[in-house]
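okkk here we go again. third time trying to get the calcium ion bound version out, last two times i messed up the smiles copy paste (missing a bracket lol). double checked this time i swear
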Amino acid sequence: MKNIVHILLLFFTCLACNSQERPNVLFIAIDDLRPELGCYGADWAVSPNLDKLAKEGLLFDRAYCQQAICGPSRASLLTGIRPETSGVYHNYIKFRESNPEVVTLPQHFKNNGYETVYCGKIFHHGDLDDELSWSRKPAEDILRDKGIPRPGGFALRENIESTKEQKRKMLQKYGEVAQFGLASGPAYEAADVADNGYLDGYNTELAIATLEELVAKDNKPFFLALGFNKPHLNWTAPKKYWDLNDKDEIRLAAHNKGPLVGAEMGLHASFELRTRHGIPNEGEITPELSLTLKHAYLACVSYVDAQIGKMIAELEKSGLRDNTIIIVWSDHGYHLGDMGIWGKATNYEIATRVPLIIWTPDMPEESRGQKTDALVELVDIYPTLCDLVGIEAPNTVEGTSFKPLLENPKLKWKSAAFSQFPTPALREWGAYPLRKAMRETFFGPLIEVVEGRIIQQQQDKWNRGMFENTLMGYSMRTEQYRFIVWKDRANPEKEPIYLELYDHKSDPAETINMAFNRSKLVKKLMEQFNKGWRGSLPATK
Ligand SMILES: [Ca+2]
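finally!!
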């Protein structure tokens, strides 16, 4: 009898801890946001809501993505499996096709009693509506009933028209290949519209309506994901956010040249920007245009920041903030003229470093408002959230819970973070291998220039098939160094093709490749690199 009572007691205790007690998660993703925010020291940026969240929570000053492009970065974060392991290293590989059985982060929460729902961009487009991940749809009908339409990309008629015209022209000129990113409208727009005149404002209202529904209808914990599309190109934001940013205070990239003796295949020709209508297909992006583009980017940052403020205010109003974890991350960084290029898609600090902020209701007071310089990776988010709500992460997960850093932000942590990217110079849209027909477009001459430089640098190591299809840059960021190893992925036993080494103590902008002057250090770093990510885990794990 005593045993039965004991078992029943255990059963009811478990029931209680299973659902009611578990905290909710507000999971906020931002597309293409580099850490140029007030809370990251950029006092010209207007980001009061993220700054406030950082003051109340913990900010990660050295967080890195696993690949600086949307699809692979998000697939890695949301499956907990690195691009090298999953094989998802360009935007056209779907994670479900390469690994049908994988349990994603929201799916794992769903399987553990959570309502899981997303608004906006969480997975990359091809994976967006992964049915296994989400337990319900967002409250679109509520917005429809209120007469709030889902907006398109541009608000101004002239830009909607010019986008159509550009598409028609490009298809006529280049044929089918123009569909792959060539036919784009203008790079920016500042229409005098309400926040919901663009998609991120609409999605925020959708997330708020969904939150209300979750509160009213369910007593299950929730995992509510809100994914912002900005500051991804095109840089469209309501005019009032442009007005918030003073153009005179904006700083252009301090270093606008590639690294000295850097890998010639390591930088690209800014394709993503150059496809935009009104941006020169070749040649210099003038300082004047650069300033307008950066103004546009920062306006988008302020726009997203304001939406985050609204979302958190609603969470507070609902009375649930005290039992909700808030995490904000971006899928990768972004070159805004840095190293002479525009866009993501490199292995350097500027493209791999991301903003990451976490707030939990019960983190110690001493940790609030702190910055940690511990090396963390986006792949760590999956096990961290599991750890914070008391669910065991699947054993396929290749990240490490950074929950201990919330207790002590100064803890000695990982000795390296890992990223990768295949030959940025010779890949097209979304890291996809260069299509032959793409060489016939205005990309052709740009590719030829950079290809000439690669051949000159690599000499007898040059092999078109390998450089275009299987060469991979593997980047390891330690506390002091960035070490990049260029290897043929198809022949991993072979010697590296090229090495890069940047000393962040003396050269934080990565302007000089020191790999040829520091042989002892290179040997040491290569030993660490060869042990892979498992060789750089925190000692406490
Ligand atoms: Ca992105």
